[in-house]
Amino acid sequence: MNTTSRSSNRFSCHRKGAVLRVLVLGTLGFIGCRSEMYDQPRYDTYEPSAFFPDGFSARPLVAGTVARGWARSDEHLYYGQEDGQLATTFPFPVDEGVLERGRDQFTVFCSPCHGGVGDGQGMIVQRGMPKPPSLHEQRLREIPVGHLFDVISRGYGAMYSYAHRIKPQDRWAVVAYIKALQLSQNAPIDSLDEADRQRVEQSQEAAQ
After folding, report:
1. Which one, of 187, 190, 167, 169, lies nearest residue 179 by Cα?
2. Which of 13, 100, 171, 190 has the greatest number of CB atoms lying within 10 Å of its CB?
3. Could you tell me if 159 and 132 are in contact, meaning their C-beta atoms sit under 8 angstroms apart?
4. What letter would DSSP give residue 156?
5. Distance (Å, rounded) from C-alpha 6 to C-alpha 166?
6. Which residues pair with 86 in a beta bridge?
């Protein structure tokens, strides 16, 4: 082997060694970076800690802490009460849009038991489940609207709470729709305008 060939072989070996060192260092660096990503300096949930005297890593909530979006300072809107008593009024004006929303929510959540007109003859009842009281009973016509809101929010008897299914504003919309249903079945004829009164009287005469 001549001098030129030996020099070429040494250079090739040195280059391979350099490439190998670069690969090894790169791999170690890559592993090191991934290790930092996976092994973060934090505590897992409920992991004990010797840092705090009570041995817990999680700190208790400050008294009065409220989760974002869960402030319930409006007693009327969120609890159906005014000055600690069941509300007799709605926390916002009731218009056609509110009644339509209430009808939609009533149809979805209430009609399976209470029936489409609130007479307690829903599909669930027709299949043998206990019958709820008719919403047209006189005692329920006279009851404060706050009571209806409270029943929807917390449940009553066999009826469970709908607080996690129906938002407070929608619960009030359901109450408004229930009041409309009650009025539809028990409206004094004197409260109707002339055209509606004539239609009712004509239908009554036709039925006789």
Report:
1. 187
2. 171
3. yes
4. B
5. 86
6. 81
Predicted structure pTM score: 0.68
45 DSSP assignment: T
Average pLDDT over residues 69-85: 92
**Cα 50 from chain centroid?**
38
How many Å apart are CA 145 and CA 149, to the nearest integer? 6
Paired tokens of 126: 């027709």
Q: How far apart are CA 156 and CA 152, in angstroms?
A: 8
Q: What is the token pair recorded at 171?
A: 């619960």
Residue 196 C-beta-side C-alpha neighbours within 13 Å = 8
Per-residue pLDDT at 92 exceeds 60: yes
Helices (H), 51-193: 75-79, 96-105, 111-114, 123-126, 138-142, 145-154, 168-185
Q: Is the pLDDT of residue 33 over 80?
A: no
pLDDT bin (cut points 50, 70, 90) of residue 34 is low
Residue 94 amino acid letter: V
DSSP code, position 40: -
112 vs 128: CA distance, rounded Å: 12
Q: Contact at 8 Å (CB) between 162 and 109?
A: yes
Task: Provide the pairing of β-strand 85-86 with 81-82.
Answer: antiparallel
**Beta strand spans in the chain (E):** 81-82, 85-86
